[in-house]
Design goal:
Number of helices: 15
CATH architecture of the largest domain: 3-Layer(aba) Sandwich
Largest sheet: 7 strands, mixed
CATH topology of the largest domain: Rossmann fold
CATH class of the largest domain: Alpha Beta
Number of strands: 11
Helix content: 40-55%
Structural class: alpha/beta
Number of domains: 2
């Protein structure tokens, strides 16, 4: 079985792989970028842009796995959706929305090389870029344990200049908490959620108290943006300032690749039928999420108001 057999539309222009909701913001930002760029071109008619989003909820959270296990799982998903004999049809733009994989660059390169015909976004945690943004050049990096133990993060820390500081905190449950916060339908929080929040808050508070010069927090896991308000609350209370700047590493990486996104859009205009009077998007989601959770995802992806047609297929059923 291949992806093309279960798609409700032609081969996708872009594909996103994540363990859950983490890559949704990147997907939404890509749609926003394409929408704005298309409108600036003032075309008579517009193409429909096709996306696939794979949320590997079967194995969530990846933070509980080793990097080798995550790599093996990504290989399994790629082989299912795009068997080697069909790799020539792989989308123009692909995103493995996982800083943990990217931070182990030598191992992840095996996956990247198997898909050499298309572009893969660099998802290395943007630590050096955020240190440059910091006034004090003291930052806090929130990441998964896999990322925190990576050779890349250790190398960045070893190469810091005098006066610079990069404090790494790896809350084990923050990705799972972010999923819960995203799907929460009310302000009610069950006791387990409260316990998780308290434990994570203590880790962040201690890091900030031990390093009071920290003035920027870098989110080096795509899930963590969905706990931004919680992290803001903890940091502001600890440091005694109204709003501590929080930077999403994934957004830095997208911004650094705008020129490539424009080239992808050029190809989309060239290849896709231009039959619409305004930009529109179609998204196929593969996941194990329930109906009410998919409704929440649909609402999130449609927040900007332009047309987004969304379909869902159960990932476990596909893989069976």
């Amino acid at each position: 079985m291949s992806l093309l057999r279960v798609m409700p539309f032609p081969s996708p222009d872009s594909v996103f792989f994540d363990s859950g909701i983490g890559g949704l913001r990147m997907l939404r930002e890509c749609m926003r970028f394409f929408n704005n760029e298309l409108r600036e071109r003032d075309l008579n008619t517009y193409p429909e842009v096709y996306f696939v989003y794979v949320a590997d909820t079967v194995r969530f959270p990846y933070s509980q796995m080793t990097v080798d296990q995550v790599l093996q799982r990504k290989g399994e998903l790629l082989d299912f959706f795009y068997p080697k004999e069909q790799r020539s049809t792989f989308p123009l733009f692909r995103v493995f929305a996982c800083h943990s994989l990217a931070s182990h660059q030598h191992k992840f390169e095996v996956v990247r090389k198997s898909l050499a015909s298309s572009f893969s976004l660099n998802m290395m945690p943007a630590i050096n870029e955020v240190i440059d943004l910091s006034t004090s050049q003291h930052i806090l990096v929130l990441c998964t344990p896999i990322t925190g133990k990576s050779a890349y993060v250790q190398q960045v820390q070893n190469n810091l200049q005098p006066g610079q500081n990069c404090v790494v905190v790896s809350p084990k449950e923050l990705a799972a908490l972010s999923e819960e916060r995203f799907f929460a339908q009310s302000l009610f929080r069950h006791q387990n959620m409260v316990d998780q929040e308290n434990k994570i808050a203590q880790e962040i508070e201690q890091a900030l108290l031990d390093n009071p010069k920290i003035d920027v927090i870098l989110l080096a896991c795509t899930h963590y943006i969905f706990s931004e308000s919680f992290i803001h609350q903890v940091a502001s209370k600890t440091l005694g300032i109204p709003k501590v700047p929080i930077v999403d590493s994934a957004m830095i990486r997208l911004a650094q690749n705008e020129e490539y996104l424009i080239s992808v859009l050029d190809k989309i205009i060239e290849n896709n039928p231009c039959n619409s009077l305004k930009p529109s998007f179609r998204v196929m989601i593969f996941s194990g999420y329930q109906h009410n959770q998919i409704k929440r995802i649909v609402k999130y992806l449609r927040d900007d108001g332009y047309p987004v047609d969304i379909s869902h297929c159960n990932l476990q059923t596909c893989l069976s």
